[in-house]
Write a structure and sequence with these properties.
The structure holds two protein chains of two kinds. Chain A is α+β, with helices and mostly antiparallel strands. Chain A has three domains: about 20-45 and about 80-230, Reverse transcriptase/Diguanylate cyclase domain (Alpha-Beta Plaits); about 245-345, Dna Ligase, domain 1; about 410-505, no CATH class. Chain A has 17 helices and 18 strands. The N and C termini of chain A lie far apart (about 105 Å). Chain B is of the alpha/beta class. Chain B folds into two domains: about 15-220, 3-Layer(aba) Sandwich (Rossmann fold); about 225-280, no CATH class. Chain B has helices at about 40-45, 70-80, 100-105, 120-130, 150-160, 225-240, 245-250; strands at about 35, 55, 55-65, 85-90, 95, 110-115, 135-140, 165-170, 185-190, 195-200, 210-215. Chain B has an eight-stranded mixed sheet with strand order 6-4-7-8-3-9-10-11, with helices on both faces. Chain B has a two-stranded antiparallel ribbon with strand order 1-2. In chain B, helix 5 links the parallel strand 7 (about 135-140) and strand 8. Classes of the chains: A alpha+beta, B alpha/beta. At the A-B interface, helix 15, strand 12, strand 14, strand 15 and strand 16 of A face helix 2, strand 5, helix 3, strand 6 and helix 4 of B. Strand 14 of chain A pairs antiparallel with strand 5 of chain B, so a sheet runs across the interface.
Chain lengths: ~500, ~280
């Protein structure tokens, strides 16, 4: 019999400042990874490993299936059973994804394979409040990603993990020393030997002398107890945040309906992107969806935002508009989301009195939506361009002009007469893309001429080529419109065939 | 016994009696529902409810053809709307010329042009723009053959809820078709290019009004217009200076005018050609 020593756990109130670590335990990770692939949770589902049931959902437990039973037994209990082969690699991928999402709460996020994530929260307490607030937020985030978790905080990472793995139903207020040794990662052989000695809880275990324990059970156990109590250092290697966001979702069943895609896998991926963007304090500018069939090339969908976006609702709204325009493979089996460009996040708060800045924000979203449905280039602003002929000097770049960009006055008449100290002549409000021939008998000339004689005043139309100048007149059409017409120089060869005059705009 | 006197009460003036023309007197109305933008034309303001264009809701403008002065009519409204918010032009028949709009005092940075391929897209874009908080005005040229009354209702509701002024430019033939717009105006050219004749076909708080004549120059003054007299004087001096040289040019061909600036004249041309192609391109 070991002599009792004074190894006890210090007791703390749940939110005491010493709670520096938060552990998240995912007891149903093996099953959750399949549910995020679009399998409904209502039906009886089990995960098998080596032909025996290792995890099951609530419906299966209610039907009476027990862990450890064979697949045949499970089938005999419930014939509507769905079973999945356990996939440890995919579990680790999901755990890493979760850790990436949890990076928003702490700079030290460490994986504890196979089913735990530990966060150092001491540095985040000031920002986010208390450990319980962080725990609730983290649990909500995990639930959003279709994972059930148990969160516990403690002053050492190992203690937090032990509390989380113990799967007690009460939050925070379970003392460490009453925890059972089950589920704590002890080998089956050690568990049996300890129970033969009458040791069932961690409290009993830490009271045993370390030297003797080390001799009988190996240094690993004593080191574990040392880390558990904070006597030994427990440096944790934090994950590195990914510099690029690319996630794929492999579906168990192919999807051929866009609506189903918009309800299932796309929101899941968009939410992951949102978490990634928040953690990195970035706003998404361009992203690419990929919809891949079983065999063949994936369909790609490029989406562009005028300003950085973080919320998954914004991302999905544009994606849905864009998705309507494309044809997808008949059966989509993999959905991928690749963020191709992001910018540092600038928070946009709507101001109180609806100024131009907030209008620009709202319009930037509007332009995104219009461009997504109507195609890029369907929505543009009108800005002068450095072109000499009026019909080429009107169209600006796509989207909204920046406030600080100076407008370039490029109207040749404007520059001409400005240099001569004169104001520009009267310009029509409606301008034609191409000057239209108009019979002179329909026109009554009112003002003019005004000569635009800048070089390069050319029109791509075959009727008018390389005219050195144009004499513009204001004229009234016999139907009542006030027109901007010009007469090409006499040298134009086709003049006699097409009529004397060209209509170039209306003073509407 | 004294004869029983009937009290002299004007029944029509009773405060409990609501009459349509009360709308004009701004009493008993929710003022926010009838915020107006001055049209810039005193005579038109006089006929419109509240003294101007409605700040929210759908307005139909019916034109026999493009270019008769429809933009000059709405220029004062555009000037006001583009100050703090955006105005979207959906499927305009021609290019809105930035230089000219800017000269008229419109903030062209706040103008967006949208091109759509189908009627559904046009209506969808119009509705989205009406609902957006960044847009104060939407100018749309919908496809007349496909436009029905339900759609005007929908745009009207969207414009009201988004507090946006939506303008539909439609051909004059739509005068016979019902529309749920707040206000419907039919425009007609007059003999003078500076004047526009319009009929109010439908308005709130009043009967239709016909034959209102507006002087378009009243509200669409550009720096050019202001300076025109100076230009003419300058042109006169230039003419006098160039008089001698002009006489030497005996080979001036018929119809080619010397490019002196803005000499006012008017004459009829006479060549035989089919009708104006561009003029029919609106509808």
């Amino acid at each position: 019999m070991f002599p009792t020593t004074q190894h006890t756990f210090p007791r703390h109130s749940p939110d005491s400042p010493e709670h520096k670590w938060l552990a998240l335990h995912f007891p149903t990770l093996a099953l959750d990874i399949f549910q995020s692939q679009g399998v409904p949770n209502e039906r009886v589902q089990v995960v098998i490993q080596e032909q025996r049931v290792c995890h099951m959902n609530e419906a299966a437990a209610a039907a009476g299936i027990l862990p450890g039973c064979t697949l045949a037994t499970a089938y005999s209990i419930s014939s509507e059973l769905t079973y999945f082969e356990r996939n440890p690699d995919q579990e680790q991928e999901h755990l890493a994804d979760l850790a990436q999402a949890l990076y928003r709460y702490s700079s030290v996020v460490s994986l504890e394979v196979p089913d735990c994530i530990v966060l150092e929260i001491r540095g985040s307490l000031m920002l986010l409040g208390s450990a319980s607030v962080i725990a609730q937020d983290a649990l909500a985030l995990c639930a959003d990603m279709n994972h059930q978790a148990i969160a516990r905080s403690a002053q050492t990472p190992q203690a937090a993990i032990a509390l989380a793995r113990a799967q007690t139903s009460r939050l925070f207020d379970v003392p460490l020393h009453v925890l059972a040794l089950l589920n704590q990662g002890f080998s089956q052989r050690n568990l049996e030997r300890l129970s033969n000695m009458g040791i069932y809880t961690l409290g009993q275990l830490v009271q045993l002398p370390r030297a003797g324990l080390g001799k009988r059970f190996g240094q690993q156990l004593t080191q574990y107890l040392g880390r558990l109590q904070g006597e030994l250092p427990d440096p944790r290697q934090g994950i590195r945040p990914q510099t690029r966001f690319f996630r794929q979702q492999h579906l168990l069943k192919p999807i051929s309906n866009k609506e189903v895609l918009l309800r299932g896998p796309m929101p899941y991926l968009a939410k992951q992107l949102e978490y990634w963007l928040i953690a990195h304090q970035h706003g998404c500018i361009t992203l690419r969806w990929q919809f891949a069939p079983f065999k063949g090339e994936p369909t790609k969908l490029q989406i562009r935002f005028g300003s950085g976006k973080q919320r998954h609702q914004d991302i999905l709204k544009l994606s849905a508009l864009k998705l309507e325009q494309v044809d997808l493979p008949t059966e989509v089996l993999t959905v991928g989301l690749d963020m191709t460009l992001s910018r540092s996040w600038v928070s946009n708060s709507q101001d109180l009195f609806g100024s131009t800045a907030s209008a620009t924000m709202a319009v930037s979203e509007l332009v995104d939506e219009l461009s997504a449905r109507l195609g890029t280039g369907a929505c543009y602003s009108i800005r002068p361009r450095a072109q000499h002929s009026p019909e080429q000097a009107w169209r600006g770049p796509r989207g909204i002009p920046r406030e600080n960009t100076p407008a370039i006055i490029s109207d040749p008449a404007a520059t001409n007469s400005r240099s001569a100290g004169l104001l520009p002549g009267k310009r029509p409000l409606w301008l034609f893309h191409q000057p239209q021939p108009v019979p002179g008998k329909h026109l009554t000339l009112l003002q003019g001429p005004e000569r635009l004689s800048e070089s390069n005043l050319t029109v791509s139309s075959s009727m008018l080529t390389a005219a050195p100048y144009r004499d513009y007149y204001v004229a009234r059409h016999r139907q009542g419109a006030l027109c901007w017409v010009f007469k090409p120089p006499e040298t134009t060869p086709t003049q006699t065939q097409q009529g004397d005059w060209y209509l170039h705009g209306y003073f509407a | 016994m004294s004869a029983e006197k009937t009290p002299d009460i004007d029944v029509l003036a009773h405060p409990m009696l609501w009459r349509g023309k009360d709308l004009l007197s701004n009493t008993g109305l929710n003022p926010s529902q009838h915020a107006v933008l001055t049209s810039g034309y005193a005579e038109l303001d006089h006929h419109l409810l509240g003294g101007g264009w409605p700040q929210q809701g759908l307005v139909d403008l019916l034109l026999p053809q493009a270019g008769i002065g429809e933009l000059r009519l709405i220029l004062p409204v555009l000037q006001q709307l583009t100050q703090n918010a955006y105005v979207v032009w959906i499927n305009p028949p021609f290019i809105p010329y930035e230089t000219a709009l800017g000269a008229c005092g419109v903030n062209t940075h706040n103008i967006l042009v949208v091109r759509t391929q189908s009627h559904e897209d046009t209506l969808w874009s119009t509705e989205r723009c009406c609902l957006s908080s960044g847009c104060a005005g939407v100018l749309a040229w919908p496809e007349e053959r496909k436009l029905n009354i339900k759609e005007t209702r929908r745009i009207q509701l969207a414009a009201r809820s988004g507090r946006t002024l939506a303008l539909f430019f439609r051909p004059i033939s739509a005068i016979a078709r019902s529309s749920l717009a707040e206000l419907r105006l039919a425009l007609r050219p007059t003999h003078s290019v500076d004047r526009l004749s319009l009929d109010i076909i439908k308005r709130k708080g009043g009967w239709p009004v016909h034959d209102i004549e507006l002087c378009l120059a009243e509200a669409s003054q550009t720096p050019y217009d202001v300076m025109q007299s100076l230009h003419q004087q300058l042109a006169l001096w230039q003419k006098q200076g160039a008089h001698a040289a002009q006489r030497e040019k005996t080979t001036v061909q018929k119809g080619a005018q010397e490019p002196t600036v803005y000499a006012d004249f008017a004459y009829d041309m006479s060549t035989s050609e089919p009708d104006m192609a561009a003029n029919n391109s609106l509808h």
